[in-house]
Amino acid sequence: MDICVNCFSDGVQSGEHKITDDYNIINKLNYPLITEDWSCEEELLLFEGLERFGFGNWADLSDHIGSDKTKDEIEKHYEQYHLDQQNKQFYPKYGIKVLVQKKKLKIH
């Protein structure tokens, strides 16, 4: 059963599901957006890091993303999928509106 944060915090129950049931929090941004090896969360962190640290600071971006991505992998991914217009058909796999909506939901 999916339930929003507000309903969960208000103790909303539905059908046979009770507030005393066990639950798991699922990260909704762990799906691939453009390529299978980059999650939506990593893509968001990439652009957030670019805004914060500036273009070319790949080591800082690697620390900011916090995954197993090296600075060279980050630079290559950015150049291949975000700068190269020949690869525009890959971007974004699930639609830019999904990325923007997920980011807004995360902030608010």
From TrEMBL:
It comes from Ichthyophthirius multifiliis (White spot disease agent). It holds the Pfam family Myb_DNA-binding. GO terms for cellular component: nucleus. One of its GO terms (biological process) is regulation of transcription by RNA polymerase II. Gene3D superfamilies: Homeodomain-like. This is Transcriptional adapter 2, putative. Residues 38-82 form the Myb-like domain. GO terms for molecular function: chromatin binding; transcription coactivator activity. Signal peptide: none annotated. PANTHER family: TRANSCRIPTIONAL ADAPTER 2-ALPHA, TRANSCRIPTIONAL ADAPTOR 2 ADA2 -RELATED.
